[in-house]
UniProtKB/TrEMBL annotation:
It holds the Pfam family Pyr_redox_2. Keywords: Flavoprotein, FMN, Iron, Iron-sulfur, Metal-binding, Oxidoreductase. Residues 376-634 form the FAD/NAD(P)-binding domain. In the N-terminal section; belongs to the NADH:flavin oxidoreductase/NADH oxidase family. Its cofactor is FMN; [4Fe-4S] cluster. This is NADPH-dependent 2,4-dienoyl-CoA reductase. GO terms for molecular function: FMN binding; iron-sulfur cluster binding; metal ion binding; oxidoreductase activity.
Length: 666
């Protein structure tokens, strides 16, 4: 595949982009402090060097009331503009182009001083906003325009005005959050006045030779959101006011429909982008759940979009565009849409990075520099930790041998990719597999390394992983009591009635696996209640639920709500899934015994001292893991990583980071 459409240049006024690959806005935390500007410059320069057509920064507030959190990023002074010359200069040196995103958080600001169109609190924020006065709205418009002008002064090639995901501009547009009765509220013309004035006044300040991108919410996915008619009216008005490109946004942050996580089908929202493109005369950029060059190419070639925005995929692989252009797409480190190290961190006030690429936003601190000493490295175990260690060490120039006792690489990750909605995980194993080949790692599958085998090596990295924990419950030796590994590997096919013991990430995943029925994109949308915004305001309608494939009871000993420790930006969707699929949830359970019958097994358990029985075809144990350390002894130049190190926090994010760090420190 030549990727001709994706790789063709695009001219937007005075700016010619070398291709249609856009790195969408993603707040990493590096934006928030002037002292991090060198790191920010290195982060973007790496993406520009990787051939990205256009980079869009994380959001910068036009004033203090627009901060995402206290002391967050802002573009409101000449000093700010001067500081950013280092960022724009670094990108330009690599032949890239960069736009600054101007974002006013409105009622999403995590501060007690937040403001909005009306004093209506967001369900995802403990702070209630104050309604802006007429004068303050006008001043905010001016602040936006001033930021745009300052971004131009800082050397940015364009700006993106953030008008989607439920931030301030969206809050003015939707009746849900705009209950004003003055010239900024009520009729559509009045609600549109805020963004239209922002664009008009920005255009006045920067003239015609500076592209203004507007991120337009084409599907709000909240009650009392916008209708399609309103969105199109707004697009016309913004186009007339001077917008050069529309980027598209799907869903407010408070929406209760998943829009970007792995379980959202790839390309789910492209038809909405195509619908906007058919209405307007300027280029339109697609976004959300596009993570491969094939999908991006098809979107443009089929006329659904002119550009494709990929924020997380460019965190995962800064060379996405370069590898595509060089026909090396099998070497792309694909974003698996897990949110675990990017958005989950951003929404927890932690520095964002990437699960599959822990160097993201750490380009200057996690460096894989060429080794000065030629040395040999043995890595034992080809799960995520071992794969990261082996490839990182080989990248540094070490001579690496990777031992794996099974016939395939991947470890626990191979099980995870069997979970519905986690199919993208297979791309991580494809990436690592190819990387091992390219770097010439000596991979020895079906080989259980012994201490003698490891003796000749200068460094030994032990990443022998974990084994599922089998809790001591009387009767658990029955063959119908199995582990999650037995089920996800396909060794055991469970019957129609199942008890799942242990409700951590894997218990929840296994419940999804058990209840799952294959579904089309339309069925997926119906399940989440996504309707046509031309008919349903905000694009929300009544969900249509199909009967689940199995009856599942999910149990845990804790009395806390099930799934409470799942990812900040995805846990709610997993919990909603359990409800949709009728998974019965039991908390505070103590397990007494499992009794074998001819046609079923009976789980005897108690809650609050009250005995219960549950007759099922299978009991699946998802009770955590134990480290496998049979090879491990404390020695010089031996390192223990991944689940073999800490099973309690078995987690691919930690494993890949630790593997990379150990290799970087050899
Ligand atoms: P986990 O999160 O530690 O959960 C293990 C579960 O087993 C807990 O619910 C625990 O709850 C129960 N348990 C522990 N010891 C037990 C015993 N002796 N008898 C009975 N029950 C016992 O482990 P996991 O589910 O295997 O997940 C491992 C890691 O994978 C997680 O830490 C997570 O990082 C990652 N992961 C995340 C996701 C996600 O975020 N969607 C999905 C999959 C995996 P009680 O003690 O209350 O019974
Ligand atoms: Fe993608 Fe997960 Fe990396 Fe975020 S952390 S960029 S979702 S792979």
């Amino acid at each position: 595949m030549a990727y001709e459409s994706l790789l063709s240049p695009l001219t937007i006024g005075p700016l010619t982009l070398r291709n249609r690959v856009v790195m969408g806005s993603m707040h990493t935390g590096l934006e928030d402090h002037a002292w991090d500007i060198p790191k920010l410059a290195a982060y973007f320069a790496e993406r520009a060097r990787g051939g990205t057509g256009l980079i869009i920064t994380g959001g910068y507030a036009p004033n203090k009331r627009g901060w995402l959190k206290p002391f967050a990023s802002e573009m409101s002074s000449r000093l700010h503009a001067a500081q950013h010359r280092r960022v724009t200069g670094a990108v330009h040196e690599e032949g890239g182009a960069i736009a600054m995103q101007i974002l006013h958080a409105g009622r999403y600001a995590y501060t007690p001083f937040s403001v909005s169109a009306s004093a209506v609190q967001a369900p995802i924020n403990p702070f209630k906003p104050a309604a802006l006065s007429d004068k303050a709205v006008d001043a905010t418009v001016s602040d936006f325009a001033k930021s745009v002008a300052l971004a131009k002064k800082a050397g940015y090639d364009a700006v993106e005005i953030m008008g989607s995901e439920g931030y301030l501009i969206n809050q003015f547009l939707a009746e849900r959050t705009n209950q004003r009765e003055d010239r900024w509220g009520g009729t559509l013309t009045n609600r549109m006045r805020f963004p239209v004035e922002i664009v008009r006044r920005s255009r006045e300040l920067v003239g015609d030779d500076f592209p203004i991108i507007f991120r337009l919410s084409i599907l709000d996915l909240v009650d009392d959101g916008q209708t399609w008619e309103e969105t199109v009216e707004l697009a016309y008005a913004l186009q007339d006011a001077g917008v050069s490109v529309f980027n598209t946004g799907i869903g407010w942050h408070e929406a209760r429909v998943p829009t970007i996580i792995t379980q959202v089908p790839r390309g789910a929202w492209l038809d909405m982008t195509a619908r906007l493109k058919a209405e307007v005369d300027i280029p339109v950029c697609a976004s959300n759940r596009i993570n491969t060059p094939e999908l991006a190419e098809a979107a443009i070639a089929e006329g659904k979009a002119d550009l494709v925005s990929m924020a997380r995929p460019l965190l995962a692989d800064p060379e996405f565009a370069k590898k595509t252009a060089e026909g090396r797409t099998d070497e792309i480190n694909t974003c698996i849409a897990c949110n675990q190290a990017c958005l989950d961190h951003a929404f927890s006030n932690k520095a964002a990075s990437c699960l599959v690429n822990p160097r993201a936003a750490r380009e200057t601190t996690l460096v894989l520099s060429p080794t000065r000493v030629k040395a040999t490295v043995a890595v034992v175990g080809a799960g995520p930790a071992g794969l990261a260690a082996a490839t990182s060490a080989a990248e540094r120039g070490f001579e690496v041998t990777l031992f794996e006792k099974s016939s395939q690489i991947g470890g626990q990750f191979r099980l995870a990719m069997a979970v519905p909605g986690k199919e993208d995980f297979k791309d991580t194993l494809r990436y690592f597999g190819r990387r091992l080949e390219v770097l010439g790692v000596d991979v020895r599958l079906d080989t259980e390394a012994t201490t003698a085998d490891l003796k000749p090596f200068d460094h030994v990295i032990v990443s022998t992983g974990v084994t599922p924990r089998v809790p001591q419950i009387a009767g658990s030796e029955d063959e119908r009591v199995v582990t999650y590994a037995d089920v996800l590997s396909g060794r055991v096919v469970p019957g129609r009635r199942v008890a799942v013991i242990g409700a951590g990430g894997i218990g929840v995943d296994v419940s999804a696996w058990l209840t799952h029925r294959p579904e089309t994109l339309d069925e997926w949308k119906a399940r989440w209640g996504v309707g046509d915004p031309a008919t349903f305001r905000g694009g929300l309608t009544t969900p249509v639920l199909e009967a689940p494939a199995r009856q599942v009871t999910l149990l845990q000993r804790k009395s806390t709500p099930i799934g409470i420790r799942l990812g900040k930006t995805s846990g709610w969707a997993h919990r909603a899934h359990l409800k949709q699929d009728g998974v019965k949830q039991v908390r505070g359970a103590t397990y007494d015994k499992i009794e074998a019958g001819d046609d079923a097994v009976t789980l005897h358990y108690a809650v609050d001292g009250q005995p219960h029985t549950l007759e099922v075809d299978h009991v699946i144990l998802c009770a955590g893991q134990e480290s496998v350390r049979n090879l491990w002894t404390e020695r010089d130049n031996w390192h223990l990583i991944g689940g073999a190190d800490v099973a309690a926090e078995l987690d691919a994010k930690r494993a890949i980071k630790q593997g990379t760090e150990v290799a970087a420190g050899l």
